[in-house]
Amino acid sequence: MAAERGARRRLSASCFWLSCLLLLLARRAPGAGAARSGTPPRSAGANVRTFTPFYFLVEPVDTLSIRGSSVVLNCSAYSEPSPKIEWKKDGTFLNLISDDRRQLLPDGSLFISNVVHSKHNKPDEGYYQCVATVDSLGTIVSKTAKLTVAGLPRFTSQPEPSSVYAGNSAVLNCEVNADLVLFVRWEQNRQPLLLDDRIIRLPSGTLVISNTTEGDGGLYRCIVESGGPPKYSDEAELKILPDSEETPNLVFLKQPSSLVRVIGQSAVLPCVASGLPAPTIRWMKNEEALDIESSERLVLLAGGSLEISDITEDDAGTYFCIADNGNDTIETQAELTVQAQPEFLKQPANIYAHESMDIIFECEVTGKPTPTVKWVKNGDMVIPSDYFKIVKEHNLQVLGLVKSDEGFYQCIAENDVGNAQAGAQLIILEHAPATAGPLPSAPRDVVASLVSTRFIKLTWRTPASDPHGDNLTYSVFYTKEGIARERVENTSRPGEMQVTIQNLMPATVYIFRVVAQNKHGSGESSAPLRVETQPEVQLPGPAPNIRAYAASPTSITVTWETPVSGNGEIQNYKLYYMEKGTDIEQDVDVSSHSYTMHGLKKYTEYSFRVVAYNKHGPGVSTQDVAVRTLSDVPSAAPQNLTLEVRNSKSIIIHWQPPSLATQNGPITGYKIRYRKASRKSDVTETLVTGTQLSQLIEGLDRGTEYNFRVAALTVNGTGPATDWLSAETFESDLDETRVPEVPSSLHVRPLVTSIVVSWTPPENQNIVVRGYAIGYGIGSPHAQTIKVDYKQRYYTIENLDPSSHYVITLKAFNNVGEGIPLYESAVTRPHTDTSEVDLFVINAPYTPVPDPTPMMPPVGVQASILSHDTIRITWADNSLPKHQKITDSRYYTVRWKTNIPANTKYKNANATTLSYLVTGLKPNTLYEFSVMVTKGRRSSTWSMTAHGTTFELVPTSPPKDVTVVSKEGKPRTIIVNWQPPSEANGKITGYIIYYSTDVNAEIHDWVIEPVVGNRLTHQIQELTLDTPYYFKIQARNSKGMGPMSEAVQFRTPKADSSDKMPNDQASGSAGKGSRLPDLGHDYKPPMSGSNSPHGSPSPLDSNMLLVIIVSVGIITIVVVVIIAVFCTRRTTSHQKKKRAACKSVNGSHKYKGNSKDVKPPDLWIHHERLELKPIDKSPDPNPIMTDTPIPRNSQDITPVDNSMDSNIHQRRNSYRGHESEDSMSTLAGRRGMRPKMMMPFDSQPPQQSVRNTPSTDTMPASSSQTCCTDHQDPEGATSSSYLASSQEEDSGQSLPTAHVRPSHPLKSFAVPAIPPPGPPTYDPALPSTPLLSQQALNHHVHSVKTASIGTLGRSRPPMPVVVPSAPEVQETTRMLEDSESSYEPDELTKEMAHLEGLMKDLNAITTA
């Protein structure tokens, strides 16, 4: 003993040092979890707590007792010190101290003496459980054991008098309580009956006597002896009868019933039949014959019952008992279900842990039925809560450990067969004291950078004591507000300063704090951070435990339970079901937890799933469960029954199985019945097993007519038989040693797309002819071959080409081969041949006669919507009798199409009934249908059309063109734009935007932003700066959610947009009368050649600037001189009309402003290939400059007042994010061109402004000045540029625009407007857009030309197009009317062409 104790101490010391080593390794890995299997992760001091062995040596088992006897329920547990044993009955502790009949034995077993049991008093029967407790350690419980007390004997059935023919089997019933079957015995003539191989007692107590003899006759009774006085049944006489001339029907005396057995037990399937002659019994399992003789576990008992010993899982299935006596065959079936007690595949393991940690006890079990698992802590049931959770079906997770969580945890698995338990110990260790050295201070700036419904991402900065923090690890402690139990989450690596807390509850407040650790220990905690998770749409989870089983050949029952995550009251369930092999899913509303589906197809597999609904809508669907309906007898006869006379004494029968839908189970054979036509009562029957589809019937009489019919068999019985079919044997055996001779004649009759072929048989009738082979083809008879019956004398070859030459051959054949062919040729008629066909008969009374009368079209065409892709079309045919039964060879053609797109072609299908199922349609689509009828060569016109719209379906494609942009002025806000899915399959009712900083995160961890309605844009605010985000979008319609789009990445800016980073979007807008602002000497404009709004700065050389200034001056002088010369050609009458127009203008505006504020206009020229940086030489501090919008039509667009200038840009940028069009690129960028730059000729003094209007001729400078200085825009408003792609901005925003009227292509210069007060603004990052012409309603299209000047190949910033505002509509219209008739467009065209040549020369000079 001393040596053993020494060995134990050495083993304990070794375990201690091994534990310390493992603790050191775990300490190096931040975030290490709890230690398992007896190894403490950290020592709390010099003494290390070890796990204490504590388990049951013996546990109680189920016991059967009888009244008045004694019972011992065994129990023994091991522990040091010894445990205290107690007992529970039905969950309540027994008080054994004051109990006279129950006492605790020294080893812990329970002894019950003189078991009490009566009808109304059963104190000892129930479930017992042993409870072992060790103070300061914990408590464990054993598995439960059932004590059953046998009741008083009761006969549920007793033997009855019966008679049986000698050699048959006899059955005498005697059924008692299931717990008393072991106490049943039989007597014959009041003498004990000895059992043997011929006489057996079934497990129910029934007596079976096989192969009866005269000695088996007598009086029989059964006796039950269960400890008390024996109880006798009634006596019944068994008579043995001699053979009789009458043939009794074959019947079952005892049939098997479905059984449930546990692995390792035995089962007896009774099956006893009686009849004359005596039947034989054979067994099948799952449609396969059982080989009983070669099996050691299968035994055929007396009478034919089947015994299976030592049952395994493979023995489960359907067993068929088939009785056959030669005259008849009957069968029955029973189901054997095999169950298994719970067994542990993985037992819980002992765990060391610290407070605030999360642990998981693993428990994996198996059994049949699937066991349920519950957890017990120190003998008390663990109730699932926020901190005690059942995960992965059976595992127990404990979150945020506290000291009171210590103890023994047991996993208890239970099913209908039994229960089992396994346990483990949890030890909470104290944290080791910190070593000497400085500890880190509290982490700084703890913030929640991402808040979702079920997770929160925290970030922080390093402690002030350690600004680098590369070697620091962090622990995040968190708890629900108001809850003392705190959880911890560790960072994954040193130096990491962020962590994502998962599995939080929606709309819940959590308190977070962060603690840093270094090699010396944990430092100070940060200040608590209070964060509330986002609310979640409360939809139900999947319904658990969905099961389906076949209740009959046409019904299936489905059961399920209430969803665990119900998220509110469940209003109802929707049960979806679908036949295997089809795509048509149907549904039914259910208010309970089960539903029986009737009217299903027999022996057909169906899949089922359940979706729970609450007030928010449908929840998560369950997984599909598949089940097949039970088999049944076939519901239809075999098909295509044919008879072939072989000779004078035999006929071969051929057939095909019933259609698959009517087989109702696997076909096990066929039953053939035949008779002479003259003696219909004398029927002979032949049984064909397996899948054989032909049978030779021999021994028939010569020259005799016989009738034949065939029926299919399944394991359930015989189905309907075919109609009687007749055939006559030959009078004498014909010759079939050679092939038939040539047919005696062949005639052909061509039609448009068919040829009618008729013939007569060979002249030599002594050679067997089995049929005829018809070959045909264009130019050759070998393209197609058709074989017909030997009785047939004509055939119509269909689907031929019109106006084609066909060669036709005819050969008779038999089993030896084909005979000599007979040839004929014919040319089909052309399409245009509408002449009547000549009628003639060619030795064939069956030659069809054409009938040119057209048929009546079908009426009452209706379209019934069945699903998202299926519509049933029904109609009536007035040419049929009232009962609408089709008895001829007519068929119907259904055609359908949809009008989207408009050029969709019709699709056709043929039907032989008055309905047709159209499948493969598109969801939520309107279709039109019509029907026509065809009979032979007669067809009707198309019927009236019927319309139907298929049901909606969930979207099958994701939203398209997902883009993300940052909102100007708000860097923490982004705007998501997208387009609807291409396959919406219904009206889109909303979208869901998912975003996250981790593209690989589970989708339920992404933040959700719902979008209601069919909006195509959404703002998301309060994002973290300089952080990459990923976005996905999912569309929703009334049927559910569609697939998600691919993830789109977007990084938020680093700082506020006020810093004006180079990649910022344009934040300014050229307002009314705005000009280029003074950008300072540091300003560098973006590159003009870029198609993106983010241009890179390019410095401007001073020499180049001088060249440009000189060029501008030269161009300005040349243009002014040319236009002035041109203007002098105006006639005096034109000047008068001009003055009249000016007076009209002045008169209409004199009350709207002061003429002294009028500024002369600038002339802007836009050339296709030239650019020039604008040089502002005007002495006027506010020159007229407006951005030019793209004209969209010939309507007048009224300018807005100056008060709207401040928010124009804001609205436009908002529109970029909130409209479906892409407003981030210019038209030039979209076409792959350089943006065109608009250049104002400001080099001349404002007093000498030149004016060229679309509707008036040019005047001298003085006249122009006099006219235009009197004019002032009523509001002083000018236009603001906007992008061509923002098409909806015209109607959605009241943006200022230029007044543009359609005119001659070279008369598109507008009158400038008056500048507003205040400094102008300029958008340097927004490229300008040239004026484009669009088609007006009733006017010729007029293009607008602008000019730009290139600068030695250098990139230049885009400049805004300037088109001043025109006068008001009335005055401008009058000027247009006055001047249009007298204007000479060719003159201006020539001058502009000359000007273009001068500019090209100037460009060449500057380039050189």
Automatic annotation (TrEMBL):
Organism, as annotated: Heterocephalus glaber
Family of this protein: Belongs to the immunoglobulin superfamily. DCC family.
Record domain Fibronectin type-III: where: 442-536, 542-632, 637-732, 742-832, 857-953, 958-1055
Major localization listed first in the record, in broad terms: membrane
SMART domains cross-referenced by the UniProt entry: FN3 (SM00060), IG (SM00409), IGc2 (SM00408)
Name the record gives this protein: Neogenin
Bilayer disposition of the protein: Single-pass type I membrane protein
Compositionally biased intervals (Polar residues): 1191-1207, 1244-1269, 1277-1296
Domain Ig-like: 53-148, 153-239, 248-337, 342-427
Name of the encoding gene: Neo1
